[in-house]
Design brief:
Layout: H1 3-11, H2 14-21, E1 26-29, E2 32-34, E3 44-52, E4 58-63, E5 68-70, E6 74-77, E7 82-89, E8 97-104, E9 109-115, E10 215-221, E11 227-232, E12 238-239, E13 244-246, E14 251-253, E15 258-259, E16 264-268, E17 275-278, E18 288-294, E19 297-304, E20 315-318, E21 334-337
Length: 349
Amino acid sequence: MSPLPMFLLAACGPDALAWRADAVSLAVSPETLTFPATPVGATARMPVAVTNQGKVATSLEVRVPAPFTADRATVELGAGATVAFEVGFAPTTWTDAEAVLELLGQPGATVALVGPVETDADGDGADAPGAGGADCDDADASVYPGAFDLCGDTVDADCDPTGDDDCDGDGVPLDEDCDDGDADAHPGAVEVGPDGRDEDCDGRIDEVLAVSGELLVTELAPQAPSWIEVCNVSTRAIVLDGFTVSTTTMTGSLPPGTVEPGACAAICASTVSGCAFELPVTLAPTSDTVTLSVEGLPLDTVVIDATWDWEPGWVWSLDPRFVTPEANDLPDAWCWSIGSPGAPNPSCP
């Protein structure tokens, strides 16, 4: 065999192949990068080191899929050099992530990436809503369902659907509850006074209200301009603001004004002498129902029918001996008079 072919065979032998394999040799650390549990919206960062154990410099392209990131796109490695770079994990969903970081070159390398998502960022034992939990503030360990909710601190510590500061447990938060220390006081509650409380949060405490039997209809004037007299038979002043008077043909709310204990007041058009509360009243002399009420509670009702004898120009007056909610329903408790709006009624014959 001639010398030239022998030389070529020698160049392609095992020693030549070993030199090529030794030209670039990569080592990565770690080979699997496991991040600490990370909440959605946060970012964790960890280092990766790449070492060129070969004898020839190399350039590597860094590829990494979301939600992982790298702080560089390429890595330049001289012979025997080590380069460290940072890999980030920034979850956007509540699902754990796994991926592969690729170092592309001749040769290349890979790093396995493991990204667990932290569902309880504040460590209070309650997962964030996105992770299927009910922690309304997963950044505050003092806020979770069942936590003590300090009233008045503007923090909904117990994650109650009603919000912060439902101190009395009536289902209404402080900014809507007129008395957050009383579970019986809230919008929509029923007034049960007189007990000194504004249970329905309408701005009027019940001491200005009346209960059935305290305010009675005592005079009825059917002839236009009609009027109605009411008397306070209780031992306290009654403010008629918002009280309602209704007949068959009208319903109206009374303006502000007070009727003192034992006093009477006329409800009528301003043209009537002695009118205390202005309201255009209409009355039918042969068939009508007069009701005085407050907040849906009837205080007194008088029903006029055909048995009530009436002559034009006369007024029906309740005999002072029958000033009760039961007695003033009886036709015999009324008699004709010229009327005395706001003044005590004379006794019937």
